[in-house]
Amino acid sequence: MLPAFLLLTAAAAATPADGIRTFAVRNAQSDAYSADPATRMAWFHEEGTRVRLKYAERLGLNVDAIKASRKRSTVQVQNWGSSYSVQVDIGTPPQTFDTFIDTGSSDLWVVGRCQDPRECGMSKPFVPKDSSSFQGTGRIFNITYLKGETVGEWVEDVVSVGGVGIRTMFGLADYLTEWSTEQSALMGLGFQDASTGGEMPWWQAASANWTEKRWGMYLARTANWTDAVSNPSPQGGELTFGGIDRSKFYGDASFYSLASRRGLWTIPSQGIALQGRILDPTTVLATTDSGTSIIMGPDAAVLAFYRAIDPRAVAFSDGSWAYECGPGGNINASFAFGTPNEPGFGPPRLFEMWDGDLVFFSGTRAEFATAGVRLPPFMMGERYCIGNVMSWNDDTVSNYWLIGSPFLRNVYSIYETTPIRHGFAPLSFEFNLKYGDTYNPIQGGDGASGGGNSPHSPSAGGGNVTTDAGQGGGQATTKPSGAGRSGVAMLVGGLALAVWCL
Ligand SMILES: *[C@@H]1O[C@H](CO)[C@@H](O)[C@H](O)[C@H]1NC(C)=O
Ligand SMILES: *[C@@H]1O[C@H](CO)[C@@H](O)[C@H](O)[C@H]1NC(C)=O
Ligand SMILES: *[C@@H]1O[C@H](CO)[C@@H](O)[C@H](O)[C@H]1NC(C)=O
Ligand SMILES: *[C@@H]1O[C@H](CO)[C@@H](O)[C@H](O)[C@H]1NC(C)=O
Ligand SMILES: *[C@@H]1O[C@H](CO)[C@@H](O)[C@H](O)[C@H]1NC(C)=O
């Protein structure tokens, strides 16, 4: 742990004169907040697919199998998955773009000529001829980590974030598929090693001038689920380059050395914990990714997680899980970073996650049916939840967690370059806002729009955990119990055929 005095000294040195730049992050619209439950469910399914494709090369996943699993989708998902963005200026004079921030990749790219307006017509394009500082390279830009395709040219121009302009190489995408979102660009906040073109990410170039060699990020929760659709919150969080914002967290941050040199923020972890108890204290790897809206883990670990919450939890064929829950979610999970085996990587520490961040969908059997999900006959409880923790659906990935915004919304995250370390601290009380006493993300339908609007005081676990029906709680540490009976066909509405195990 970094001694407290060191942190304070660093913070004291961090005045604007040293180039510290703090600016707002926007929490943008996405079908994750759609009023139509079936659309939301389709978005969730697609998000799983998108994440698997994004990490397919890194993890050796079968791309054809992942793509094939999408074919049953009948609901058109309008938006790209992740929803945190910042304003980026490109060119001279500056053209301004709402730009996704993605710690899970390392390229910057922007929509250029949009050859098929049905695919990218919602996004404002960058117009090279309007910039006097623009320069093309003729080199093909082609990224494969997206669901769709993105092809264009590597180009160079002045890119400004928070008022700091740096000549940067970026991809100008002339051909895009499945980019139906108003954001025009994506900025990778990983390392140069992970850039598809071997280019230095903007933040790494900028860090040459930072007195404090680090940056920090706070991702806020969506304040008003109903409103989020028509009026994306401008208060989506905050990004600070060249320093950190101590007002956003309390106590000491814990720092972890990177466990992998493959270009992303990957650190040792002991996986997920319930009620403060680590389910499987084996050291694995975890990559944090602000461009992912779910948490994805090894199949066996995710099975153990949901079975410990509800012994009758069921898995869907897309890697998501449903379990019996009270209105609050009934999870109380933490993520464990660090490893006791090699103290050099950083001390083991649990970071709690609010239940509201870990539940994607919650409702009665009838409400699930409205969303196109038929629960199996033995699920006769009052209420069920689909969690934001998904399995890779590939048992070759046994030791790797991908940790998206459902976790990152619970901490202030710190990204250091000298030495390279990734850190977290619990959010300050006033920034750890939990909206609504109970969490019900189901929108519209009965008019009782979901997700309360009034922030209530942050409290551990958020909301009361109901432990009726002898299900919730999750004290058990059930290990995956081998193969069981399996059934078929729960998810309907053409989404996917589901298989569950008993
Ligand atoms: C882009 O990359 C993909 C995968 O490597 C390849 O199949 C495709 O032909 C490439 N497209 C262009 C225009 O280079
Ligand atoms: C660093 O600061 C100097 C002086 O202000 C400036 O000329 C240079 O462009 C800056 N470099 C970067 C990478 O920001
Ligand atoms: C949430 O958004 C809806 C739709 O815009 C609005 O009617 C409602 O008043 C908002 N609630 C709060 C607390 O702002
Ligand atoms: C949640 O787990 C923590 C341990 O991580 C425990 O201290 C707390 O009491 C639990 N909260 C609830 C509501 O069960
Ligand atoms: C939790 O339970 C306590 C005691 O029953 C009650 O006073 C409180 O209002 C409840 N809180 C929530 C968020 O339901």
UniProtKB/TrEMBL annotation:
One of its GO terms (biological process) is proteolysis. Residues 444-483 are annotated as: Disordered. The active site is at 102, 289. Keywords: Hydrolase, Protease, Signal. CDD domains: pepsin_like (cd05471). One of its GO terms (molecular function) is aspartic-type endopeptidase activity. SUPFAM superfamilies: Acid proteases (SSF50630). Transmembrane segments: none annotated. Pfam families: Asp (PF00026). Residues 444-453, 460-475 have a biased composition (Gly residues). Residues 1-19 form the signal peptide. Gene3D superfamilies: Acid Proteases. PROSITE patterns: PEPTIDASE_A1. Belongs to the peptidase A1 family. This is Acid protease.
